[in-house]
Prior knowledge:
The complex is a heterotrimer.
Chain A: H1 23-30, E1 37-41, E2 53-59, E3 62-69, H2 77-82, H3 86-96, H4 101-116, H5 122-150, H6 156-175, E4 184-185, E5 188-189, H7 195-220, H8 223-229, H9 237-243, H10 248-252, H11 259-262, H12 283-306, E6 328-335, E7 340-347, E8 355-359, H13 361-366, H14 369-372, H15 378-387, H16 392-396
Antiparallel strand pairs in A: 1-2, 2-3, 4-5, 6-7, 7-8
Chain B: H1 2-27, H2 42-45, E1 52-54, H3 70-74, E2 80-84, E3 91-97, H4 106-110, E4 116-118, E5 133-135, H5 136-142, H6 153-181, H7 183-188
Antiparallel strand pairs in B: 1-4, 2-3, 3-5
Chain C: H1 5-40, H2 56-66, H3 77-94, H4 112-120, H5 123-133, H6 137-168, H7 173-179, H8 188-191, H9 193-206, H10 218-221, H11 231-256, H12 268-286, H13 294-323
Amino acid sequence: MSGFNFINPFGVREDPGSFVGDRYTDNFSRKARRDTIVLNLGPQHPSTHGVLRILVEMEGEYILRAEPVLGYLHRMHEKMAEVKTPWQFIPNMGRVDYLHPISWNWAYVGAVERLAGIEVPERAEYLRIISCELNRIASHLMWWGAFVMDLGGVTPILYAFEEREKINDILQIVTGSRLTLSYFRFGGVSTDIDDRFERLTREFIPYLRERLKMYKALVTDNIIFRRRLEGIGPMDLDLCQRYGATGPILRAAGLAYDTRRDIPYGLYDRFEFDIPCGPSNDSYGRYLLRLAEVGTSLDIIEQAIESIPDGPIKIAKAPKANYKLPAGETFFAVEGGRGQVGVHLVSDGGQCPYRIKLRAPGYSNLSLFAEAAKGTLLADAIAILGSLDLVIPEVDR
Amino acid sequence: MFKAIIDNLKGLYSLLVGLFITGDFFLSPQKTTHYPRKVDDPETLKSYRGPLELVPADNYGNGKCISCQMCVRACPGHCLTVTKGDKGKEPKVYLYDFTLCCLCAACVESCPTGAIRFSHKVYMVAPTREALHLDLIADLKSRATKIDPMGTKAARLKVAKAEAEAAKAKADAEDAAKAKAGPAGSAGAPA
Amino acid sequence: MELSLLSFVQIIIACLLIIGLMVGNAVIMVYIERKAAGFIQRRPGPYEVGPRGTIQAICDAMKLLGKQLFIPGNVDWALYFLAPVLAFLPVLVLFLPIPFGKYLTTLQVDDGILLILAFAGLGVISNILAGWASNNKYGLLGAARAVAQSVAYEIPMIMALLAVVFLTGSLNLTAIVERQGTWPWEWNIAYQPLACFIYFVSLVGETNRAPFDLPEAESELTAGFHTEYSGMGFALFFLSEYANMLLVSFVCATFFLGGYRGPILDGFWWTFIKAYAVMCVIVWLRWTFPRVRFDQLLNINWKWLLPLSILNLWVTAIIIKFID
């Protein structure tokens, strides 16, 4: 007991100035030059959209090195899948990515259907497409507002919320919730649409097209906004492919790769829509591309709502909560708002799946940040981070 | 040089356009719903998923539940507790822990008799965690519009059965009386 | 100027009134700003406290007063507490030569604008001290930004004001107002539109308001130089920010918008109406535009505003020479 310190029993360092930080900070600072600042951006920072933490080494305001630190929002979704029956895991998929939950619904339900060989009725496929595209628009609108807020414009996010509320109202009719939607079931969807859903959707399409013009005048054409983004954070095709980036980032870099077109699922091959590609691989290009994608989604919804067939919304013997998957292995990918969402499912024929791997697009997209942020100003790094459209729950899963 | 000047003048014009847009919104009506004074469109509440409730089978506060435990097994959050009663299929206890519920509708969809559904209680608040541990049978009883004089459903069914038997016996007695009166009477009755 | 006992008493009373004006202005501007933000964003803004939220700002001030004075670890506490006080004090001096009405000036000095410009530079010292003393990296970056920005934007501001001084031939603010007529086309804004524009842009930069709010850029530096301040320390920074805004708006009204002279009934109300109109425009800008980047901010200043203001000064001087 001779060395026991009664005042400081747990051995906390007495001089707070000598406190360096945790293991990440220590490792990162060891490589830093002596004349630079190591700054912890996050996990509580206004523009990291949740609890992302980025370590940056700065010389003045220029970033020399950046390193994202993950895991502040890890919720063991992959492990949870191993202790829940396939049906019980569906609500989890609404929680992985809270901005585009329907894509995750589809990826998981699609993987189970592919493994079990379940055919989905035609009407259900149409409902899946309509809800997925509506949700994609909501996700892009939310990103639009948050991105402009990262650049200092506080007002546009509240305009984006007006439209998002309308989409939430529409989706609430069929899903019953407004954020963590779990609408898909094995072999169909949970509820059928009614007249109100159709009416609101039909009203919404021309309304949003008008509003997009306002968005263009208020933000896209704004000189401050353009000068902040043009030429900032270029990510060329080679870089994107090395890191496995998908979605709008890859398409802005010039490769028109879209899962809806290249690995068709559902009934997407029945609809006429173009995959926007380009115009440039900088932040402004990614911004323009996402707004163009909203137009694409509107086109798909317009065609689907006009040609929706009658019929059942679920197969007759839909799997219930105690459904056992046949043994096997499968992979199913869909196009989410942020890129390719994939579910790799392995089953050994037991009550619960043996293993599930969730492929989150945000995780791959975030890994581009360290490369793109090198040598930029702090404000530019924030703009690049915003243009990646990260949802931290999805990155950490 | 001149190009830069023209670009900047165009930029200044784009700033003016932005000012006019926000100025226009400044003067236009607000879009928010002022919650305590104004409530949302009741149309949107029809699909709202509030805490679970039992579906009433009649006006006496009786449900359709047959205590088959399908909902308990389907629930991913383990938020339901259903115990079978001493006699009959009616549950004695139907407890529901709203703090664990993820409103996924697994129970509603797996119920063979359609005994549970989502309520539309949007404005529900709870001062404590315990207040969210709901007793659904008590809730169902509180929604009954008629008071059941017999107490339980089984007792009422018994009485109903006895009444039906008495009525049948009476009808039989009448039939027998008619048969006694003459065989022609019973033959002509259906016409 | 002779400092008699009477003028001394006069200055004391005026200073008390100015402190009242500053506090009242902060309360009113917080309300105006939040209401304007609300209406632009299509929501009601403050609504619950008082009739239509009118006493919301007072309640906020009470809350800030009641908060604990929190000192983070390893701060230089003397500088840490000196900084907010230093931000607040020079503003008092700045209001002395402002002519609210024809005879409603605290201190009638011949070099009024010189006094204002000399003391306006003191405000940035408090920002440096706050950023440096609070031992925070965000604070340090914010302080560095504040210095560069404030130094840069003072120059075109002075140049723009100098053009008006050339026109008037006096540094006295009352004389500058007296030279302007009563109708808008007789004000200096009609003679010096470019100088007015340059002055307006620099005043937004000088007072650290959006889109030039780099020292406290929320999405980059969390809160910039006042990151570690809470309670009364923060409130003093807040107060001085609004007081600075009021001051530059008064200077704008005096130099370009005819001061206390108006189409009907000259008087101090015209000064206030004009100054608050300028402030409303500043608020409007804030809720419309995204923030510029720091190098762009300096580029706007050194590459556009400064050459333009020199050109403007030069043309003004030539015209005055030839007309005389």
